[in-house]
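Sample intake sheet
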Amino acid sequence: MTRQAPAAKPALQPELGLIEGRFGRIWNEAERSYVVRTLAEAGYGFYHYGPKADRSLRREWRKSHDAAQAESLARLSAECRGAGMRFGMAITPVGSTHPFDDAARADLTRRVAELDAIGIDDLAVLFDDLRGDMPELAERQAEVVNFCAGLTRATRVYTCPTYYSDDPVLDLVFADRPADYLGKLGRLLDPAVQVYWTGEEVCAKEIGPAHLERVAGELGRKVCLWDNWPVNDGARMSRFLHLRAFTGRPAGIAEHVSGHAINPAIQAHLGCIPALTLPMVYAQGSDYAYGAAFAAAARRLLGDEFAVMLQQDLPALQDVGYERLGVRGGRLRARYEGIDHPAAREILHWLGGADLMTDDEVQTQ
């Protein structure tokens, strides 16, 4: 009798989520509703809303959302909760740490109450992509986060440090990180606060257990991954459609993180294809194959014929880049013009030069 090899044991799966924390245009309600439904059906457990272009959460965080915006966000909260997902909002209180004075406390008290009124399960207080050359940076940031945690009715609180990766590009752009920044932040933050972290790089090619263990040791807690895939914002990345399945995230990292959130692509429908492959990484363990995962996700969302076409065009759309397509751009337009599907329209939109970002756009969001 021939014995069959035992099936691979499924790995643990951390809580999966989406952190809408990218630059670029804000999705409309229909796009966001599609993403919520699709990810909820795939087993995602939370949705954190915090696009950089929402000025009332970032550059003008002291300014309340207007009535129409607040109503739209309340509908999003209800939709997420109705789909079985936790809903959170992320505020980047620019300038609140230096000084963290009575005015900052009053504005934070008011804004956190307004976010609570919209209906949040999670509150995120973010400091990503802000200058780091300020005295007692970790101390002041921890003070602001703990203050907000004491105000909110949300049952979970998150933060993202200014230095949210080992990547030296952060030191180049935002000034050299202070000595023992992560250690100080971890010691001063309330132990219940979860910390977002992107990995060894801002857009990490691989995220492994050894790295995560080292960072957890510094922070005194497991990190929640802010995974910058399939995000494609910014002047450079927006020239490419990020479509391929997840790679470089072994299922074994599940026991080393408190959660795993993805930062989405500008293209809502297309970005759900790689998003659907992340649960496969954890469910399939050593049996995971990223090509097969892409094919399965694409067929599920696009149908067989469209999925095959997209797989054939992956090198052109993801690797060549908008400016270098040349005559291939016209051929791609001809292929997708006949497909009546939102994802096909996103491809045509991109081929037409829309959603291409500039450095100025990033710097002003």
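Comment: Confidence is low (pLDDT under 50) at residues 1-7. Residues 294-361 form one domain.
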